[in-house]
Amino acid sequence: MPAKNSIKTYIENGFYHVYNRGVEKRNIFLDQQDYCVFLSYLKIYLSPIEKSINDINKDNSADFKNKNKIISEIYTLNNFFNKIELVCYVLMPNHFHFELRQTNRKDIEIFMRSLITKYTMYFNRKYHRVGPLFQGRYKAVLIQNEEYFLHLSRYIHLNPREILNREQPLETYPWSSYQTYLNIIKINWIKKDIILNIFVKNTFHKFESYKIFIENYKEKSEEEYKTHVSLLLD
Predict the structure, then answer these.
(1) What average pLDDT score do residues 93-108 get?
(2) Which of 25, 120, 165, 222 has a CA between 20 and 30 Å from the CA of residue 49?
(3) How many CA atoms lie within 13 A of 4 on its CB side?
(4) Sheet holding 95-102, edge to edge
(5) How many domains does the chain have?
(6) CB neighbourhood size of 167 (10 A)
(7) Residue-number span of the structural domain to which 210 is assigned
(8) Does residue 9 fall inside a structural domain?
(9) Contact 213, 154 (CB under 8 A)
(10) What are the angstrom distances between the C-alpha of 195 and each of 22, 154, 223?
(11) Residue 205 has what pLDDT?
(12) Which residues sit opposite 25 in a β-bridge?
């Protein structure tokens, strides 16, 4: 019998919960560079090619030779601008969660294969290992109602609570899209307005309303939902 969520329902313009974790539950991010590299791949895949190249040309920290090498590589990669809209994400030490929308039926499949292959090659090269890094194929669950759509963004942004100290505000966690939702940082390849526009039209209150929606969530209900999602990961 196929594993749960291994049979995926792909539809045009569908929203999905996409997630995976390290093989044998091992960590897939071992230091700050690993998180940054993974996010840099997301940025390149989800941004217009012209913008990625302009950003590299404006980067004064890289020399001319390295810039040309990176630009040449960008032209060889698949690009998913206008194909994949990343609504929110979190990167945890041994797993990740995305909430996203695809345009065409096969966009997620190609996107995830490209991203996972690219990052696994980087990771294996850096840590002198071979073989798969992730536990089988990614999981993708079709989101079929607005309640789950909103609740999933809350679950994703609450994920870091399990590794943060009680004194640490949730927005201090650097490896999720939550800071973008609170307007602390700006990332144009995160399509946060898909969710924020559901709240209120006033910009300031929109950010504040979302923060309340996330952080005032009842602990008991959160634990129930975490249990539900942990079962999905098994």
Answers:
(1) 97
(2) 120
(3) 10
(4) 84-92, 95-102, 15-21, 139-142
(5) 1
(6) 6
(7) 15-233
(8) no
(9) yes
(10) 29, 11, 23
(11) 77
(12) none
Q: Are 100 and 141 in contact (CB under 8 A)?
A: no
Local confidence band at 190 (pLDDT 50, 70, 90 cut-offs): very high
The per-residue pLDDT of the chain, averaged, comes to: 87
Residue 228 clears pLDDT 60, i.e. is over it: no
In a domain, 228, yes or no: yes
DSSP three-state, residue 208 = helix
Question: Is residue 10 domain-resident?
Answer: no
Residue 115 falls inside a structural domain:
yes
Q: What angle do CA 205, 207, 209 make, to 5 degrees?
A: 60
Residue 109 has pLDDT above 50, yes or no: yes
Distance separating alpha carbons of residues 51 and 57, to the nearest angstrom: 10
Position 155, amino acid = Y
Among 58-67, 98-107, 116-125, 161-170, the range scoring the smallest mean pLDDT is 58-67
Residue matched to tokens 């630009």:
71
The pTM score is 0.86
Quote the CA–CA distance of 19 and 15 in Å, as a whole number.
13
H or E stretch at 96: strand 95-102
Q: Tell me the H-state helices in 82-202.
A: 107-127, 146-158, 178-181, 193-196
Percentage of the chain exceeding pLDDT 70: 85
